[in-house]
């Protein structure tokens, strides 16, 4: 079942500084995701460092990973568990 974003939230995004055209799409994806992992949680699962996980994100290995605050340089990433599962499956070949 797909959830939709309330109009009040979408209307408030520009006032919050989120006037990026793709931001509502990111929100839609979040509403459909059942479990979100942090960089640290993914690092533990893979047995690597947080820096390695961020490098994998930058290389596109976790295509649905996104920053909590896309306008902040220090914002942390959220990674859907499904991305991690797909990555692990690809690594096992």
Protein model, in words:
With 93 residues, this protein is mostly helical. The protein is 48% helix and 10% strand. The chain contains 5 helices and 3 strands, in the order ααβααββα. The protein has a 3-stranded antiparallel sheet. The N and C termini lie far apart (31 Å).
Summarize the main sheet: 3 strands, antiparallel
Strand line-up across the major sheet: 1-3-2
Name the beta content range.
5-15%
Element string (H = helix, E = strand): HHEHHEEH
Number of self-contained structural domains: 2
**What is Rg?**
15 Å
CATH topology of the largest domain: Arc Repressor Mutant, subunit A
- Give the name of the CATH architecture of the largest domain: Orthogonal Bundle
Structural class: mainly alpha
CATH class categorisation of the largest domain = Mainly Alpha
Helix content: 40-55%
Unreliable parts: none
- Described by the principal axes of the CA atoms, the overall outline is globular
Intertermini distance: 31 Å
Q: How many E-type strands?
A: 3
Rounded average pLDDT: 79
Topology:
Layout: H1 7-12, H2 23-32, E1 36-38, H3 39-46, H4 50-58, E2 66-67, E3 77-80, H5 81-92
Antiparallel strand pairs: 1-3, 2-3
Summarize the model shown.
This protein has 93 residues and is mainly alpha-helical. 48% of the residues lie in helices and 10% in strands. The N and C termini lie far apart (31 Å).
Notable characteristics:
mainly alpha; Arc Repressor Mutant, subunit A; 2 domains
């Amino acid at each position: 079942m797909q959830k939709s974003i309330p109009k009040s939230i979408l209307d408030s995004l520009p006032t919050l500084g989120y006037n990026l055209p793709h931001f509502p799409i990111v929100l839609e994806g979040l509403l459909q995701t059942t479990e979100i992992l942090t960089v640290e949680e993914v690092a533990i699962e893979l047995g690597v460092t947080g820096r390695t996980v961020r490098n994998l994100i930058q290389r596109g290995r976790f295509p649905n990973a996104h920053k909590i605050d896309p306008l902040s340089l220090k914002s942390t990433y959220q990674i859907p568990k499904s991305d991690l599962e797909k990555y692990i499956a690809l690594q096992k070949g």
